[in-house]
Amino acid sequence: MPELWEVFIRPKNGIDFRHCGSVRAADPELALQAARDLYTRRQEAIAIWVVKSKNIHALDPDIRDVYFASADEHPERYAGYYSLPEGVEDI
Predict the structure, then answer these.
(1) Which domains does the chain have, with CATH numbers?
(2) Maximum distance among all alpha carbons in the chain?
(3) Pfam families recorded for this chain (predicted)?
(4) pTM here?
(5) Given this model, what pLDDT does residue 81 score?
(6) Rg (Cα) of the chain, in Å, rounded?
(7) Nearest by Cα to 47 from 64, 29, 59, 35
(8) Could you tell me the CA-to-CA distances from 76 to 17, 67, 73, 85, 87 in Å, in that order?
(9) Alpha carbon of 30 to those of 37, 62, 70, 73, 76: distances in Å?
(10) Residues 6 or more apart from 38 whose CB is under 8 A from it?
(11) Which carries the bigger pLDDT value, residue 1 or residue 49?
């Protein structure tokens, strides 16, 4: 059975790649062709990436606090933590 590939495209009007869906294909070249046919029919992209789904690793939502909790513990990292000196209107 063909492998599952995740498809990312870079739209003409942006610089970031975005996930747009998945395709099944036997190899990277066929995955690119399938992605092109399915997700860029109206020429809305300037670049395509395909990645085997099994090679994408995501954070388990049950343990996300371990990864992101420290942001709240360091308010000095954010501009809103500081007050502007007298006479300064904008930085």
Answers:
(1) 3-75 (3.10.20.520)
(2) 69
(3) PaaB
(4) 0.68
(5) 76
(6) 21
(7) 35
(8) 31, 18, 9, 16, 22
(9) 10, 36, 43, 47, 49
(10) 7, 21, 23
(11) 49
Q: Report the alpha-carbon distance of residue 17 to residue 46 in Å, rounded.
A: 10
Integer distance in angstroms from the first to the last C-alpha of the chain?
A: 58
The whole-number average pLDDT for the span 61-76 is 73
Token pair recorded at residue 57: 């690793």
- Single-letter residue type at 13: N
Alpha-carbon distances of 28 from 4, 7, 40, 50, 73, rounded to whole Å: 10, 11, 17, 7, 43
d(CA 89, CA 91): 7
Q: Which whole number is the average pLDDT over 49-53? A: 97
Is the confidence at residue 13, as pLDDT, over 70? yes
- Comparing CA positions, the residue from 55, 57, 58 lying closest to residue 31 is 55
pLDDT band at 70 (very low <50, low <70, confident <90, very high): low
